[in-house]
Amino acid sequence: MCKAQSVNSGLALRGCCLELIRSLSKLHQLSGMASSDKPEVVERDVKEKGHKEDDKEEGKGGFIEKVKDFIHDIGEKIEETIGFGKPTADVTAVHIPKINLERADIVIDVLIKNPNPIPIPLIDINYLVESDGRKLVSGLIPDSGTIHAHGEETVKIPVTLIYDDIKNAYDDIKPGMIIPYKIKVDLIVDVPVFGRLTLPLEKNGEIPIPYKPDIDLEKIKFERFSFEETVAILHLKLENKNDFDLALNSLDYEVWLSDASIGAAELTKSAKIDKNGISYIDIPITFRPKDFGSALWDMIRGKGTGYTMKGHIDVDTPFGAMKLPISKEGGTTRLKKNKEDGGDDDDDDED
């Protein structure tokens, strides 16, 4: 089957070449006539001489147009005979596999279709990401592979946005914002008959400039108090300073009272923090008060105690999953006990 197709293609190509030779012969005859035919020289007045020169220019123009038409016809005949065509391309998707406070990794999926009977090389990929006409990042990917004959292939273009570079370049872009973007891609391919072609593509969308949530340890509430082991609840206030919602999945943290670490943990916790909103969550912790020294007595006397808290929260966003840091240093909190432990568990202590 393949051999028969090869023979048929060869015969078709041979016929096309013979047609090319015949056309070239005709072109040669036209050229010879244009150069060898010399009209008789006759003295005429200035007006007639001007008309003669105009006719000569028109003759030259007509000859050039014939050459252009001839070349165009030959190209069409070769295209029809062998089956060459222009490839097509489209941006099918834009992914953000990783995003944090420092950077966003973007992957652009471009589907390229090759209608030709031979593979075509993808020579270069030029890309530009801009926002409101201002460049965010650009680059060139050379020698980007080959598109199979009569096939299609999805080419993945990796792009990285460094937020510090963007914020340093444009003062009006602030953490927490959502900015529009336009991705421009030029695919440069080399196709027989057509030569080197540029396939321009565009895609619009939005991307965030994330900002870490603000955290505050408002109070520590005893569930069970003992010098050997105390179970307490940390009442946390989380403030979302982004223009998009955060869906909390889990968090890890470590807490210090004065300079003493009272514990660290990782836990699953679900909560929604609206854009530019506040949410409260309670997380349990177990510690040994006798290890704290003076910080313990300050808490027992009802005095405020300095604390530090550090960790991360895993959240889902409209732009994908993020792991954002949380931290608070130099804060002050208070400690309350339940009534059964001799404390004052009034409603005023509840958030």
UniProtKB/TrEMBL annotation:
Belongs to the LEA type 2 family. Residues 37-59 have a biased composition (Basic and acidic residues). Pfam families: LEA_2. Gene3D superfamilies: 2.60.40.1820. Residues 342-351 have a biased composition (Acidic residues). It comes from the Eukaryota. It comes from Citrus sinensis. GO terms for biological process: response to desiccation. InterPro entries: Lea14-like, LEA_2, WHy-dom. Residues 89-206, 215-331 form the Water stress and hypersensitive response domain. This is Water stress and hypersensitive response domain-containing protein. Residues 35-59, 330-351 are annotated as: Disordered.
